[in-house]
Amino acid sequence: MTLARITSTYRLIPFLLLGMIFLFSCRPTAKVRVWRTENQVQWPEKELNLRSTGVCFSGGGTRALCCATGQMKGLKVLDLWSDIGYISAVSGGSWASTIFTYYNAGAQNDEELLGTYIEPGEISMDNLLDISPSFLGYAATRDLSATILELTLKDIATAGILQSGKDIWIDAIGETYLKHFGLYDRGKPRYYTLNDSTMQGIIDLNPKLKLSSDDFYTVHSLQPGDVHRPFLVVNSSLLAPASMLPVNADDMTVFNYTPLYLGSLHRQFIEYDSRLRGKKGFLVGGGFMEPFAMGSKPKSFISGNYFKVKLPERKFRLVDATGTSSSAFAADLGSSFLELFPVDLLPNSNLGRIIPEEKYWPLPDKGMVEATDFRFADGGNLDNFGLLTLLQRQVQKIVVFINTDAPINLDFDPKSDCAPVATDIDSDVYPLFGYPGGNQVHNQVFEKSEFAILFEKLRDARANGKSVMAKTSFKVKENSFWGIQPYQPEILWVYNEQVDQWEDSLNKELKKDLCRGVKGDFKDFPLYPTVGEDRFRLQEFTPSQVNLLYQLSAWNVISNPEMFKFLSE
Predict the structure, then answer these.
(1) What are the strands, taking DSSP E only, across 134-224?
(2) What are 446-501's pLDDT values in tens digits?
(3) CA-CA distance, 447 to 432, in Å (whole number)?
(4) Which of 47, 207, 374, 517 is most buried by its number of CB atoms within 10 A?
């Protein structure tokens, strides 16, 4: 290239920049509905008259997805879905719950989506190999690692033009899990909302946007035989402003995504402690906004419950919600100097750029606020069950599916002076009783003395070879960090563990394979690790591994109808 051509090229740069500024300034404005929570908590879904019952599908990657699918099938067999008001989901539980709540392709109805339950004595190696693409559990066999690698290489090769670093994980979740069920299309992104009525409300308020039904996903339209869809809450964590990374991860707050709204209940002024830039305060929380406004910039308060905003360049999608909920690497990376580590020779290329990021603005009690680029992390960093989200809403009857890979230590004495640790029980259980662990330093909602009651019930069920579950009626303590007020719910805790009663009913061939342990096809069953159950695989399982865990999870529900009937009482 000659010097003259180089010079002329550089002369074009200011005009290109001006063009980009012009295009940015021409982004459309919209009228969006908001719900403030500064005076008293009145959840937006109150207008839906939901039953005060809920189920929690915990995090745990594809293991959690498989367990949740079986548990969903079990609730269908017991005909309990119409008695459930809420689903609260985290990480892998949110993958399953998002597909269950919204799917519009991949399966014709719930019978196909939720699969076929088989009595344990009739399970064979042959029928374990059979997995239909219309089955929700099929998603757990998909190759997530290859998709991540492909998108990462595209990001590096195009300097982020064809693939943004902050969307690598998000888009990988979309391609791997959601696309097959009609919920991800990179070429035609869509907003999401509750139903035709809420969709039409957005369209009517914003005629200049020329939106149509093709621009939205709505909750699954029921076919004959399909079950009721509870109100879905997907949980993630508001990590910190992007400018503050690396940051002390103890400052995270919960962030909810629902079909009706998204945001954070509890208004807080947080001094984020950057490891490089010191402390700086930001307002977070204070209410909720319609999902299609996420990533926008507020321009003015209109009246009542409406703001005028400048919309972002791209739509906020279902995959942005459920993908963010499962970004397990984000908190550790965002609090470490590794976040700054360069991974290639391109400008501004560091590991931290892969942490999900969106513009976010809180709801002030008055006046206006600026939108800030925030990083988001896995909901499991704060509460891997999604239980605290339902306690905020004072839900009266709750089932917590703890789809863990942590066995229960049968030798641990919960009444001893030793505090429980992660080798005794799932590490998200004991912070609820005042034994802090990891980032969960604000999670106590029950008395410490009550931990022993729950642990002993779960331990005894495991020792007796039964489904590991326990029902409690502990009084909830006030928790100002979460905005939880005292009340007394009924909670059924269902723990993913070995069940001798179920295994004893299997045929000899399967029992022999399970006895082979690490040399068999199901080396860690049912406690598959979140990462690396099979060599050279990140989170994907074989069809046999998916089906066996699904069948156990469904059996745990179906064979214990007396434990679940409180949902319908």
Answers:
(1) 191-192, 216-217
(2) 999 999 999 999 999 999 999 999 999 999 999 999 999 999 999 999 999 999 99
(3) 9
(4) 374
DSSP code, position 118 = -
The pLDDT of residue 346 is 47
Q: What is the dihedral of CA 364, 365, 367, 372, to 10 degrees?
A: 0
pLDDT single digits (tens) 13-62: 454 455 444 444 467 999 999 998 866 678 999 999 999 999 999 999 99
Flag whether the pTM goes above 0.85: yes
What distance lies between CA 130 and its chain's CA centroid? 28
Strand partners, 447: none
Mean pLDDT, residues 332-338 taken together: 77
Are 66 and 553 spatial neighbours (Cβ–Cβ below 8 Å)?
A: yes
Angle ∠(380,164,167) on CA atoms, nearest 5: 20
Q: Is 401 exposed, middle or buried (0-12, 13-18, 19+ CB in 10 A)?
A: buried
User: In whole angstroms, how large is the CA radius of gyration of the chain?
Assistant: 24
559, exposed or middle or buried, with CB in 10 Å at 0-12, 13-18, 19+?
Answer: middle
b/e string for 282-317 if b means 16 or more Cβ within 10 A? bbbbbbbbbbbbbbbebeeeeeeeebebbbbeebbb
Q: CB–CB of 89/57 below 8 Å?
A: yes
Contact predicate 428/384, CB 8 Å? yes
Task: Look at the chain and count its residues.
Answer: 569
At CA 155, angle to CA 21 and CA 5, rounded to 5?
55
The first and second tokens of residue 200, run together, are 């039409």
Listed range (212-221, 355-364, 549-558) with the worst mean pLDDT? 355-364
What span, in angstroms and rounded, lies between the C-alpha atoms of 24 and 502?
60
- 522 pLDDT tier (thresholds 50, 70, 90): confident
Q: Are 315 and 190 in contact (CB under 8 A)?
A: yes
pLDDT band for 221, please (50, 70, 90 cuts).
very high
Distance CA 316, CA 300 (A): 21
CB of 62 closer than 8 Å to CB of 540: yes
Q: Pick the closest to residue 330 from 534, 567, 170 (CA basis).
A: 170
Q: Which one, of 416, 413, 435, lies nearest residue 424 by Cα?
A: 413
Local structure of 393: helix, strand or coil: coil
Instruction: Give the C-alpha separation, 230 to 79, whole Å.
Output: 14
Q: Closest Cα to residue 360, out of 318, 404, 397, 321?
A: 321
Strands 372-378 and 231-241: antiparallel
